[in-house]
Amino acid sequence: MRQFAFILLSGLLWISPxxxxxxxxxxxxxxxxxxxxPAVQQGVDENLKDVHFAFDSYDLTPEGHAILxxxxxxxxxxxxxxxxxxGNADERGGIVYNVNLSQKRAEVTRDALxxxxxAPDRIHFSTGWGKLYPVCGQSDESCWSQNRRAHFTPGTMLxxxxxxERLERLPVTACANAPCR
Length: 181
Description:
By secondary structure, the protein is of the alpha+beta class. Helices cover 50% and strands 10% of the residues.
């Protein structure tokens, strides 16, 4: 049974970004993918804030809408910047449910930015990742509330690429004859 769940999860992770990309590509004509410059990456990281959601909801809160207004203002002053939006969920709930919920969070966030005047072709992906990329790992409401979010990444970079880059920057410890610590 565990192997079946792993295969199902792997399939969902492989298919979800492709489905999201194909859905968004029918709605927008995105420019070719390119790696954003370090300055753009830093600008997105420093200026585009996550939008948080209530438990079991993809409705924007007044605070979430205010954050999106600020994000839209920054994007308008930086017209060459494009983004991807990753919807996330907390650890509660099943895999399929959380992937669907987080996808709706990403789509609501994208739609709100478009309604605030951001051209749809500046948003490459709006993808739901379920509970795969928590920012807090404890099992309590303070962490769960941080994990229920829509997160912005520069250009076509997805959370997987951001995480891989951060891991590459960690120091490597060689443990030839002694236990690693």
